[in-house]
Design goal:
193 residues, binds NADP nicotinamide-adenine-dinucleotide phosphate, 4 helices, 31% strand, single chain, Dihydrofolate Reductase, subunit A, DHFR
C-alpha cells in the first residue's frame, strides 16, 4: 500500500548490448543488426507477471528516435522519454521527463505505482550511469557481442564486485548464439546486497 508521500520501491533494471570494447552505438544508431538479439530485448522489456501490469521504459532522446517505429506499440509498456529541452511528448511515447528523479517520482507514487512493475532503462550512457547509482537498481542485462565494432557511445563502467555476473538466470538462455557470423551471449549482472 502507498501511504501518501511515501515512495513504492520499484526495481530499476538496465538492458544493453555491448561489443568488445563496451561500445553500444555509432552516430545515433546501433552498430550491428542482430534480429535475434533485438527480439530478446523486446521479449525482456515487455514481460510482466500479471495482466494489467506495465513496465516503464526509460529512453534518452536520441535512443528513442533511433528506435524503429515499427516496434510500437510495445505490449505491457509505458514509454518515457528523457529530455531537458524537448516538448511535447513525441508520438508513441506516454511521458516526457526532464530528469531521472522525476522518473522515480512518477513510477513510485500513485497512480502509476499501482501498475508499474519494473523500470527498464534503455540508454544511452547518461541515464545508464545515473540509474546504476540508484539504490533501487538490482539487475543489468548485458548482451556480450563478441566482436569489434567502431563505436562512439559506450556503456558506463560499473563495479563487477557489486554487480556480479550470474552463471544462470531464470528466463535468460545461457548458450552462445550466432547471427550473420557474429557470436553473442546474454548475460545478467545482479547487485549483491
Ligand atoms: N547497444 C545498446 O544496447 C544501446 C542501447 C541504447 C542506446 N544505444 C545507442 O546509443 C546511442 C544513443 O546514446 P546517446 O548518448 O547518443 O543519446 P541518449 O542518451 O539516447 O540521448 C541523449 C539525450 O537524452 C536526454 N537525456 C539523457 N539522459 C538524461 C537525463 N538524465 N536527464 C534529462 N535528459 C536526459 C538529453 O536530451 P536533450 O538533449 O533533449 O535534453 C540528452 O541529450 C545511439 O547510437 C543508440 O543506438 C545502444
Amino acid at each position: 500500500m502507498n501511504i501518501e508521500g511515501e515512495e513504492t520501491r520499484k526495481p530499476i533494471r538496465l538492458i544493453a548490448a555491448v561489443c568488445s570494447d563496451m561500445g553500444i552505438g555509432k552516430n545515433g544508431q546501433l552498430p550491428w543488426c542482430l534480429p535475434k538479439e533485438f527480439q530478446f530485448f523486446i521479449d525482456t522489456i515487455t514481460a510482466v507477471s500479471a495482466p494489467g501490469k506495465k513496465n516503464l521504459l526509460v529512453w534518452g532522446r536520441i535512443s528513442w528516435f533511433s528506435c524503429p517505429e515499427t516496434v510500437f506499440p510495445l505490449a505491457n509498456c509505458l514509454n518515457l522519454v528523457l529530455s531537458r529541452k524537448m516538448s511535447p511528448v513525441p508520438p508513441h511515447a506516454h511521458y516526457l521527463c526532464k530528469d531521472f528523479g522525476s522518473v522515480i517520482h512518477l513510477a513510485s507514487k500513485p497512480p502509476l505505482c499501482h501498475i508499474v512493475e519494473t523500470i527498464w532503462v534503455l540508454g544511452g550512457p547518461e541515464v545508464y550511469k545515473e540509474s546504476l547509482e540508484h539504490p533501487w537498481c538490482d539487475l543489468i542485462y548485458l548482451t556480450d557481442i563478441m566482436a569489434d565494432f567502431d563505436c562512439n557511445v559506450f556503456f558506463p563502467k560499473f563495479d563487477r564486485n557489486v554487480f556480479r555476473k550470474q552463471k544462470r538466470f531464470s528466463g535468460v538462455p545461457d548458450e552462445i548464439h550466432e547471427e550473420h557470423g557474429i557470436t553473442f551471449q546474454f548475460q545478467v549482472f545482479k547487485k549483491e546486497a
